[in-house]
Amino acid sequence: MRPPTSYETSFNRLTEKFYQKDRWPEPDAVAQTIESEPLFLILYRELYYRHVYAKLQPTLEDRLASYHNYCDLFNYVLNSGQPVDLELPNQWLWDIIDEFIYQFQSFANFRAKVKARTEAEVATLAERTDVWDVLNVLNVLYSLVLKSRINEQLVAARDGGDVVETAGEFGVRPLYKMLGYFSLIGLLRVHCLLADYTLALKTIENIELHRKGLFARVTACHVTTYYYVGFCYLMMRRYLDAIRAFSSILIFVSRTRQYHTKSYQFEVISKKSDQMLALLAMCVALCPTRIDENVHASMREKHSDHISRMQYKGEDGLLVFEELFNFACPKFISPVPPNYEVVLNVQNEPTNHQRKIFLAEVRSQMMVPTIRSYLKLYTSLEVSKLATFLEDVDTEACRTQLVLYKHKTRQRKWENGTVLEGEYANTIQDLDFFLKQDMIHISENKLVRKTAEYIIRKLETVDRLLQQATRGGK
Amino acid sequence: MPGLETKSGADCAGWARPQEIANIVETVARYNPENIEVLERYVTTQLNSDTYDRDANLALLKLYQFNPDPRNLEYVAAVLAKALTALPDPDFNLCLALITDDALNTHPVLQQLWEAQQLLERCSFVEFWRFVEDHAEVRDGALDACKGFDEHVRDFIARTTVLTCQTVSEQVLMDWLNLSAEEVREFVADKAWSYDEKDDSVVVLPVTKENAPKVKGEQEVVKFEQLKRIIGHSNEVY
What we know:
- Chain A: It is found in: Cytoplasm.
- Chain A: Its main location: cytoplasm.
- Chain A: Pfam families: Paf67 (PF10255).
- Chain A: Belongs to the eIF-3 subunit L family.
- The complex is a heterodimer of chains A (about 475) and B (about 240).
- By secondary structure, chain A is mainly alpha-helical.
- Helices cover about 65% and strands about 5% of the residues of chain A.
- Among the domains of chain A are: about 1-195, no CATH class; about 365-450, no CATH class.
- Chain A contains 22 helices and five strands.
- In chain A, the strands form two sheets. Chain A has a three-stranded antiparallel sheet with strand order 1-5-4. Chain A has a two-stranded antiparallel sheet with strand order 2-3.
- Chain A is globular.
- The termini of chain A are far apart.
- The relative contact order of chain A is 0.07.
- The model of chain A has no long low-confidence stretch (mean pLDDT about 85).
- Mean pLDDT of chain B is about 85; it is low at about 1-15.
- A three-stranded antiparallel sheet of chain B has the order 1-3-2.
- Chain B contains 13 helices and three strands, in the order ααααααααααβααββα.
């Protein structure tokens, strides 16, 4: 049974036309018309609540009911002896997992706004701790991963094993396979929201990011994957890897722009892209690297002001990092309910904590760009002389700054293997130095701009145009 | 070179994660609060035997994150101290991310461990040693329980020094490593470093690709194949 393709187009068109500000017909009312189709009702409710979340303000009752509907849906898929006879488009399956996690995140946020909650709401929240509980959410995702044997399938595909045999009765079905795969990406996201960056990347260790994988079948999934992978790298102080993740997806999005401007996911994709440009700007400020020309151009277009202000010394520069982090980070959540007796809004605390850690890291390496700019001017220089260029820095503190420069510019960088692996590498290619007691010896690598390739490409374009023009003329 | 091997635990050469721990850390059993005690005992083992298992310790912090209990402070501090021994890897920040701001603000030991980490991350080695000396709480409450802690910090300092310097004065080394003249001599011998033949107040460090960067002149090469199309078409144009 393959549902009509109305999912991506008609539903959204009807929403635009009739349900901009109103709810779709109540599921109960629909149930009276279509009684014998329990599965249809579950899928209808899923869309119904998703619409409420997207366009209206969901009440606590909505949140509970939607949670129960997800339970029904996943019970239906997971707790049957046989694989269920259902197929849904990949896009739809992705949206289900994506929305499930979004509503979990939204609920954590909702209950943490203690000030905004009524007494009745607090009573319900305190009583129904099972609803949107973190372990229940994780349980769904892990169960889908296990049921589909997606990890085993990915390993078999990588090592040249028999994927169909490995997949088993359930995993061989597209429904299970894709739900399992999207759950891996979902876990990446949930672990990241809970600030467990290592576990987040560990979860997707069987997905080969440098090859085009299943994630590329749904653009929103593709973008989500790279956003969270890049963010985890950023927090693990692996800026080169973060830059690689952000650039590669931003190139992809800009190349395929014409296809998704019409998609209902266009807004989500452009918002994530904007956030990634901001994250990229921070990575490049912390670790100056040449990136793709087009991506660089869009980054400058959006953040030219931020980019120059990030170079400011001290607190002024930090303020820019703070602003960009706030704009671009995921909204972190606390896995446990707040203390409802303390009437305070605590929904931002998890994010504030992550920002504090990130800014402390940035603060520790604020001097690196300044030192780099001075070293560029010399081939050798006394430590004490460099100290006179820097404000409030004596010779010993300056020596410390030089050691710090080396420490911070050596980071793990992915070469091959799983996403978590990486060897220490130098992040600043064009300039290096060493100390002989009190003398700094500097070596600069002049990176020659590769012009020939550029000119050849342009010549070929001209050639092609010329041919087209002549052919057209005849 | 010390510190360069992967320190994620299980793949550490010559040391394997016990099966009992692997069954927790590598499966969904990592969410079962009943395993808190097992992982706590494992932290104690690490403290006493000078071993380190990042992922198991993160799994413990995650269990605390899901099951907050003020009694776990002692182990949180131990895990943070252990993470400092993993420098230059940023394990400390990864652990910190799983602790709440609240815990940090209410427990001075955790706050002080963070300050100590900041000093090491900023390579302010002299200030680091002074800080831990001045703050008995952090010494007694966390660092002293961690076998080989000072040696690990000195290894990190030595590693970063070798990244930066070809030669360094003995005095600077003494200050950075917090060692007396005699001790530093032993340290230099242990590391198989040497003293300058002409001036024995100068320590000569091994030459590596980090402290002897080579200038790479990059030149662009154009292969004939790349020009094939252009040359081929130039015939047709005229």
